Amino acid sequence: MAPERKRSAFLSYSQGGVCKMCHIFLLLWLLHFSSVYSDITDGNAEHLKREHSLIKPYQGVGTSSSSQWDFWGSTLVTSQYVRLTPDERSKQGSIWNTVPCYLKDWEMHVQFKVHGSGKKNLHGDGIAIWYTKERLHPGPVFGNQDHFVGLAIFVDTFRNDLHGMDRSFPYISAMVSNGSFAYDHGKDGRSTELGGCSAEIRNKDHDTYLAIRYSKGRLTIMVDVDDRNEWKECIDIGGVRLPTGYYFGASAATGDLSDNHDIISMKMYQLMVEHTPEEDSQDWTKIEPSVSLLKSPKDNIDDPTGNFRSTPLTGWKVFLLLLCALLGIVVCAVVGAVVFQKRQERNKRFY
Ligand SMILES: *[C@@H]1O[C@H](CO)[C@@H](O)[C@H](O)[C@H]1NC(C)=O
Ligand SMILES: [Ca+2]
């Protein structure tokens, strides 16, 4: 059996690719304010929620009436994978959790596999992961209805928009809708997307994963598709409002071009996050899906959810930054001086 996979996308993500200076900064920050930002460690306290998880060998799925997953269309359930569509034209399939999710903070890990005989660019259309008000409503958006209410993550493997050559495909993107927005296939959803990234996910021999994290109004999508057992950030955006009580699902579609679209597992983890009494007293099922900041997550600075990476810099933070910068400059100056001196000495020897 394979070793247990790192569960926390958040922790493994935050450990990777951070510069030394930032480490010092982070350390200082944690030392001083660990009490205030206790939710920063919530990746530790997560729990797998079986009723929202789809795990091999998918016992009872589709056959037992007590099953927590329903499927529709071309979906085929084996003991090793759930195939939403086969590598054939004009197929649509989906699988839906029958249990509404009342968790306020969660992280969904999806292991998926897209593969087929189509050569480069001759395959499609992709997979969508859903957290929506309604379930099992087939339609034109990767096998699900348009004008959906909730969250969608698209793994779009076919470029429809020939003007959008600034991005390579497959392309992963996210969309939140209150039902009034249509998904524009012709533009690969560009007009409604919250963010996205390109990811080589097709015909891989290794496992490919996607993580969707929703906590305190922050939506984070991470991918692990390079066989490195490491999460890479794809989307990170604040100001996202999603209610509880919606359903998780996955769907896929083929058109003139096709692929096998397989879901291997969907694992739902509850994140243990504290909320203010005010937030707790609210009826979370009544929230309307919305995004307050429709702009690139990278300049998403006035984030109301309290994530330190994107809050505006206040006095002492500026001070710490300056301190780090100053330290950096001093280190550079010293190193520079030493190197310069060495050179001078060498030069003297030569002439
Ligand atoms: C959905 O959101 C849009 C933009 O925020 C708003 O104009 C519209 O009235 C909302 N529609 C519904 C059905 O609530
Ligand atoms: Ca497309």
From TrEMBL:
Q: Which GO terms describe its molecular function?
A: D-mannose binding; metal ion binding
Write out the GO cellular component annotations: COPII-coated ER to Golgi transport vesicle; endoplasmic reticulum membrane; endoplasmic reticulum-Golgi intermediate compartment; Golgi membrane
- Designated name of the protein: L-type lectin-like domain-containing protein
Q: How does it sit in the membrane?
A: Single-pass type I membrane protein; Single-pass membrane protein
So which residues are the signal peptide here?
Answer: 1-38
> What are the record keywords, sorted?
Disulfide bond, Glycoprotein, Golgi apparatus, Lectin, Membrane, Metal-binding, Signal, Transmembrane, Transmembrane helix
**What GO terms describe the biological role, i.e. biological process, of this protein?**
endoplasmic reticulum to Golgi vesicle-mediated transport
Q: Which residues form the L-type lectin-like domain?
A: 46-271
Q: Which PROSITE patterns match?
A: L_LECTIN_LIKE (PS51328)
| InterPro entries, alphabetized | ConA-like_dom_sf, Intracellular_Lectin-GPT, Lectin_leg, VIP36_lectin
Instruction: Report the locations given in the UniProt record.
Output: Endomembrane system; Golgi apparatus membrane
Q: What is its main location?
A: membrane
Transmembrane ranges, per UniProt, are 318-340
Q: Which CDD domains match?
A: lectin_VIP36_VIPL
The organism encoding this protein is: Pygocentrus nattereri (Red-bellied piranha)
The record's listing under Pfam families reads:
Lectin_leg-like
